[in-house]
Specification:
By secondary structure, the chain is mainly beta. It is about 10% helix and about 40% strand. The protein contains 3 helices and 26 strands. Strands 1-2-26-25-24 form a 5-stranded antiparallel β-sheet, with no helix packed on it. It has a 5-stranded antiparallel β-sheet with strand order 11-12-13-14-15, with no helix packed on it. A 4-stranded antiparallel β-sheet has the order 3-4-5-6, with no helix packed on it. β21 and β22 (about 345-355) form a beta hairpin. The radius of gyration is 21 Å and the shape is globular. About 40% of the residues are buried.
């Protein structure tokens, strides 16, 4: 995939098996820089927040190697230390105890009860497990490994389901992205999708929200083959997370961070919008280096380079740089990933945000670790070794105020 360009469809990796599995306890300390956040009156004053530097340290609590971890989509760590692992590669859910040993599993490909056509997202509440299957357009509820209920969401055919979560009263909520309509235009343009929220038991009704959550930017244009859509270069993507309490969302384009609760509370602006930042020359150079490298391996190299140029030129000469790439939250604190193209950096920076949006500290991680959940300063991630074999890693955040 070329950074900043429309990604290619993911290719299935070979079924590489790891010969061993183990828990290892090591300590990793990462020294980091703090990023100052915008403030509102109810948050700490800017002078109080601008303490620098703040170091956050990540202790590696455990690493789990299993020979059947392949395309792990999501992981949740429940209160007693057990892990619920959603494996999209085998369309199954693996249940591990606090020692990392398997205590159960369920799921397989199919359309029947307890079967899946895809695995999109999961959430847990005690021993209850929600699984969103976007391809089959349904949500299934399990009590540990026993199927309890199934809800169809086929009324959501016009949108793309993305996340699922329990509300405080136990009702499942699904989020979905509604893409902008394609227009038969003669000029290029960037359009933006929006995120909708619906209760699973009322899938046809969109939940009213106090703020709009922006989705992914889409490049629309016309060529000899007709109207087409793709991701523009350096596109802002949907950056939000469903929590038990509500939603925390960031506008990757302007840096604004907001939240709102499921009980109808007015939305809160945790961080105001910031002036745009243009993509620096080194990142543009890396973009074109990647384009030319890939073009040399393609029979349609000239057409490919022309398309890459169109995806960049749609910005009109001044290419804005996204602020964020991802966010995960436990409903109190949140981790937000700062945008950086893979071609120019082997690490990514994360900031820990307090309940009012203040920056409690930052840390950096290699791109080989993808963080998927946060709970009480404990982070679960999916790591890749040099052979692209997956493992689970559990980290504990130390340092920072709050």
């Amino acid at each position: 995939m070329i950074d900043g360009m429309s990604p290619c469809m993911p290719q299935a990796r070979g079924d590489r098996r790891h010969p061993t599995r183990s828990w290892r306890r090591v300590r990793v300390c990462l020294c980091l820089l703090v990023a100052a956040a915008g403030c509102q009156p109810e948050r700490p004053e800017p002078d109080a927040e601008a303490r620098t530097p703040v170091e956050l340290h990540l202790d590696t609590v455990a690493i789990v190697h299993r020979d059947y971890l392949f395309n792990v989509r999501s992981v949740r760590r429940v209160s007693d230390g057990r892990l619920v692992v959603m494996i999209a590669g085998s369309l199954s859910v693996l249940l591990l105890d606090s020692a990392g040993d398997s205590v159960g599993a369920f799921g397989r490909i199919g359309q029947g009860p307890g079967e899946f056509q895809s695995m999109t997202d999961l959430d847990t509440k005690g021993d209850s497990i929600l699984i969103l299957d976007a391809l089959a357009r349904r949500v299934q509820l399990f009590h540990w490994n026993s199927l309890v209920a199934t809800w169809s969401i086929r009324e959501m055919a016009a949108v793309t389901p993305q996340q699922v979560a329990f509300t405080p009263d136990g009702a499942p909520i699904v989020s979905a992205e509604r893409r902008p309509p394609y227009e038969s235009v003669g000029i290029m343009r960037v359009a933006r999708s929006t995120i909708e929220f619906r209760r699973v038991d009322e899938p046809g009704r969109v939940i009213e929200t106090p703020v709009e959550v922006p989705g992914t930017e889409t490049f629309q244009g016309r060529n000899a083959r007709g109207v087409f859509a793709a991701l523009p270069a350096f596109a802002a993507t949907a950056v939000y997370d469903l929590t038990r309490n509500g939603v925390i969302a960031a506008d990757a384009r302007d840096g604004r961070v907001v939240s709102f609760s499921w009980d109808g509370e007015a939305g809160r602006e945790l961080r105001p919008a910031s002036p745009p930042i243009l993509v620096p020359e080194p990142e543009l150079d890396a973009f074109w280096d990647a384009v030319r490298t890939r073009a040399r391996r393609r029979p349609d190299s000239e057409e490919y380079e022309a398309m890459a140029g169109a995806l960049l030129e749609v910005w009109g000469g001044s290419v804005p740089r996204p602020f964020y790439s991802a966010i995960i939250s436990d409903g109190s604190e949140a981790l937000i990933q700062h945008y950086s193209p893979q071609a120019t950096s082997e690490v990514v920076e994360w900031s820990l945000l307090g309940s009012h949006g203040e920056t409690l500290g930052t840390f950096s991680l290699t791109r080989a670790v993808r963080l998927v959940s946060l709970q009480d300063r404990e982070v679960v991630g999916v790591g890749l070794d040099p052979m692209d074999v997956e493992h689970l890693i559990i980290l504990r955040i130390r340092g920072g105020s709050g």
